[in-house]
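COMPLEX REQUEST
Ligand: magnesium ion
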Amino acid sequence: MDNPFKNFAKSFFSKKSGSALGIDIGSSSLKLVQVKNRGGKAILETYGEISLGPYAGFEIGRSTNLDADKISEALRDLMAESNVTTNSCGLSIPVNSSLITFIKLPKTVERRLETVIPLEARKYIPVPISEVALNWWVVPEEEETFSEFQNNEAKKQDQSLNVFLAAIHNDAIERSKKIIKSSALESSFFEIELFSNIRSSLDQSLQAQMIFDMGASSTKLYIVERGILRDSHVIDKGSQDITLAVSKSMGISFEEAERMKRTYGIASGDKEKNLTEIASLILEYIFSESSRILLNYQKKYNKNAGKIVLTGGGVNLKGLGDYARKFFQVESVVADPFSKVEFPAFLDDVLKTAGPEFSVAIGVALRKLQDME
Ligand SMILES: Nc1ncnc2c1ncn2[C@@H]1O[C@H](COP(=O)(O)OP(=O)(O)OP(=O)(O)O)[C@@H](O)[C@H]1O
Ligand SMILES: [Mg+2]
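STATUS: Structure written out below.
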């Protein structure tokens, strides 16, 4: 990707420690963001992206499943191209290398969670517990709503604990360690990408918000309330499925279909009517599923979501914002994760457009910066 920041970064920032690097290994491309702390603010130093397709002998836009060596090769190329000046980094782990679930336990086991949770987790995790890294925490109870408070309605005492459970497969951890080592980096954490995304894409809000991350191979949905993850789903279709469908239906190469998708999107009216119709079939599937998931959540908790935040490279499809606004009954906005960092004003437009692809990498970089304080 053409990075207008590169020369700027090169000339204005000298090699200094105190910088933090966030890395996101997506299925179709690798992204990085480097930030540093100045007066308590995160300052953008550089960012960059590289397509992984060519490292697997495929086209740009293809989703890949590369081994650690190939990923390191791409990462080293990207770091050189983006003038990265630090080796202190954090790395995201794809949602599909992890298992995320909520379990209910009786309150009586509250003091024995250390032993109870690994035993309980066996019921939910399809591989031996020794093969995963387990993280968990108790989801705080809901606070009283204002009307409950006003009407003096005591909330029904819930006798169960709601525990959030996240397991990362050891293979994914080993792979990540290998990538870090052969890229001469030092990573202090691996974070499931959804937490990075929440950090960079959402604002504080009392109402539930849903992140809609349309990547190449899948679309991920996270419902978050008061900063806490409440629900997560993966839909097995992403933006690459549009390219594949266009290529097949029109009898053109993947490369040509990808180019058409990125040039016209679904906003060119009669001019590219076929393209719009084909893309709409895939979008219809993804959006119907998303809508169903959100409605279920709203029904289950009897409350309305305030906002849907669109992110991931797939939402750069021209016309997608309008499509989402028509489809969902809830306000839909495109993520602006670079708004969480400071940068020179002349980059405003470039970073607004690039934003959705960098949500995860920015979230990782921000956590790394916090950890370094
Ligand atoms: N301008 C654009 N118009 C349409 N689609 C685009 C545009 N730019 C990127 N995309 C699509 O976005 C996808 C890449 O998005 P992203 O980088 O978020 O995915 P990823 O992180 O590699 O994948 P995943 O999250 O599924 O592992 C590709 O399918 C690409 O074709
Ligand atoms: Mg991604």
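REMARKS: Residues 26-29, 61, 94, 215-218, 238-240, 243, 258, 261-262, 265, 312-314, 316-317, 357 surround adenosine-5'-triphosphate (ligand 1) (CB under 6 Å). Confidence is low (pLDDT under 50) at residues 6-16.
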